[in-house]
Amino acid sequence: MRLALKELRRRPGRFTVATIILTLIAILLMFLGGLLDGLIASSTGAIRAQAADAIVYSDTAQASFVRSRIEPDVRAEVEGVGGVTEVGGIGNVQLGARVPGNGPRDLASVALFGYELAPDGVPEPPPYGQAWADETIKASGVEEGMTIEVGPARTPIEIVGFVSDTNFNGQSSLWASPDTWRDALAANRPDAQLGPGVFQALVVRGDDSDLTTAIDEATGGATDSYTIDGAVAAIPGVTEQQNTFNQIIGVTVAIALVVIGLFFALLTVERTSLYGVLKAIGAKSSTIFGGLVVQAVVVTGIAAAIAGALVVVLDLVIPPGSIPLLVTPGRIIVSVVLLLAAAVLGCTFSLRRVLRIDPASAIGTTS
Amino acid sequence: MFLAFKEMARAKVRFALLIASIALLVFLILFQQSLQNGLITGFIGAIREQNAPVLVYSVDGQRVLQGSVITPRMEAQVRAAPGVGDVGPIGQGTFTGQPSGGSDGDTFDTTLIGYELGPDGGGIGAPTNLVEGRLPTADDEAVVSDADVRLGFGIGETVTLLPGGKQIAVVGVAEDAQLNVAPTLFVSYETYLDAIRSVNPDAGTPLPNVLGVVPAAGSTPDEVVASINEQSLELDALTRDDAAAKTPGVAQVQQSFNIIFLLYGLVVPCVTGLFFLIVTFQKANSLTLLRAIGAPAGRLVSSLLIQVVFIIGVGLLVGALLYFPVSQQTLGGIPLRFETAAVVFWSVLLLSLGVLSSLFAARRVLRIDPIEATTGQGVGA
User: Fold this and answer.
1) Which of residues 267-306 of A touch B (CB under 8 A)?
2) φ, ψ for residue A310 (rounded to 5)?
3) Helical H runs in chain B?
4) Model's pTM, two decimal places?
5) Which string of b and e fits B129-164 if b means at least 16 CB within 10 Å?
6) How far apart are CA A225 and CA A216, in angstroms?
7) What is the per-residue pLDDT across B166-194, written as a single tens digit (0 to 9) for each?
């Protein structure tokens, strides 16, 4: 092992190109992962933030707020389900917001939520005409105390504070009272307005382990209930995005494995006679193979460290609102672990060759 | 050439690994190219494939069809703008649709695009590229996008909107006319209004989402766009191509994929260059000996280049073969397509970059001095 590390120290040039290739692959892995995380986070924050056990839509809504309608009588049925402790109405409308100081054509995209039960990190509903805003809206110049105008009806909403990680469909969320939301919906989207007491969905808290089934049975199938995780997965495109990106990431890891395998197989061929000498003076195959693994792990570790730093820089450089990149320590760690696993596995291509080296070959060789 | 192929035959594993890595990279690049094109076509195909040369959004709509609302005052401003010819309202909504041709009563997010029917169904906003059937000529008839047929939206089928139970008959199929990667029905404007009323009894009368504009004789779409936008800061007129390209999300998708393509594109020549450089180092003594017994440097270099072209060529072929069956699939509602132009483009680019990267190895070969055969030194010295 010391020999392997010594070679890395004394002849770093030999490993430079492999390190560059692995750095590119590591950047790819982290960028793809960051893109996936960014897409999912910006689409699902408002649902993930719900401090609840179930979200209830109407039966034909396909887990879409705008296509869901929960009438007061259905809500009463849900409230009567055994194990249900709290029920709150929720709804949203996606609009453009005019921000003071911005150009007349420079609008911010917002998803205005009306809510009764406060999500995690969001305070209780503010008074009429006010809203908590997701902090991502700051990129559009919105500040606390500012009044923005939403929708073609220019409904005024005063921003009273900021919350985090609550975006929905890639838009900054605003959290307001049900009345604020209902009036903004009617004024700006007359085709989607809802009557008094009607909500798009219900947020339910309870202590039944199978709350969603109990609710749907109690309403006679008039509702379509999801756990929070289920509601996140049911957002159109989320599962498809995750599957597609994970497949691409998987093939990229496979490429890393093949590249590492190729590189160290070539190095092993180059050193066959040297390994023969090492074996002749008593080195075990496991020691030689261990050295290869150490070199692969170190090279991969260096590449991953460079890539991690570059991806963080990329994240800082990309302007808000362009590429939805979200770089998290978790994603970087997962990428590094995958690459290191690929490095160790890649080295096994060389194992057979190392085992086949005959110490006798050391006799008579010139190098 | 004999030498090049003989060497590859003797070191199958090494060269096979290189081919495998190139093939996987090519496969990924081509697959993602199809994914990008499929995603964008599914996302904004209906805008690109409708017949209005100019679309007018409200600024509030932020270039999203469903988000835009055109008030009567805004419509009057558009009609009054110089260069404007015919104007037609276009409405768009998303519903839960159940096609009669679907299995087990499957329901889908279904987009309705309503436009005022003209003669033979060809009003402003009608789909342009009909591949089967006919345009709607009456209410409750629809043209669907070709990608939706496999979901049970074929001609002769009926789509039921839920709740409310409004039924729409499919009478035609248009190519690449999806919106929001969901089944898309082009219907009469009245059908669209009825659909909204049927699913939401509380709904007020919807206003048009956008206006389709045909320039008057002698005016170009660009001139009409400028003319309309001068009327009001609340109007956002765009040519058809701009409306498609500037839909939120399209540019981000393209930027993201461009970064991914750049990185994959860099890996291929790096891997190829590294491989042949190492192999050249390993063959140092043999190459020196060959030079010493009279082999010209050009022959050794051409042998190297033959290997490079062969390896990348096989990698491209295997990658394209892997890509072919995948490109016939539908991924999460996105129909993929075999992109011949992409295959040709990436083949030429990767082959060129691969050959370029192998020039480092070729340079080493050219620097061999035959005299070193007598001193024990070679290209690796």
Assistant:
1) 267, 269-270
2) -65, -40
3) 2-10, 12-48, 72-80, 189-199, 221-231, 240-245, 250-282, 284-292, 297-327, 340-357, 359-366
4) 0.80
5) ebeebebbeeebbbbbbbbbbebbbbbebebbbbbb
6) 6
7) 999 999 999 999 998 889 999 999 999 99
Instruction: For residue range B6-41, list pLDDT tens digits in order.
Output: 878 887 877 888 898 889 889 989 998 998 898 889
Residue of A nearest to B237 (CA): A105
Residues 6 or more apart whose CB falls under 8 angstroms from that of A92 comprise A46, A65, A66, A111, A112, A113, A114, A168, A173, A181, A200
Domain coordinates of chain B in residue numbers?
A: 2-43+250-374
B82 preceded by a cis bond (ω within 30 of 0): no
CA distance A277 to B202: 87
Are A61 and B58 within 8 A, CB to CB? no
The domain spans of chain A are 2-44+238-362, 54-226
- What is the distance between the alpha carbons of residues A122 and A133, in angstroms, rounded to a whole number? 9
Q: CB B14 to CB A190 under 8 A?
A: no
| CA dist A73 → A76, A171, A305 (Å) | 5, 32, 58
Q: Which of A169, A64, A164 is nearest to A121 (CA)?
A: A164
**Residue B35 and residue A151: Cβ atoms within 8 Å?**
no
ipTM rounded to 2 decimals: 0.75
Tell me if B54 sits within 8 A of B220, measured CB to CB. Answer: no
How wide is the angle at C-alpha B135 spanned by C-alphas B130 and B138, nearest 5°? 170
Positive/negative CA dihedral, A178, A184, A188, A193 = positive
| Amino acid, res. A256 | A
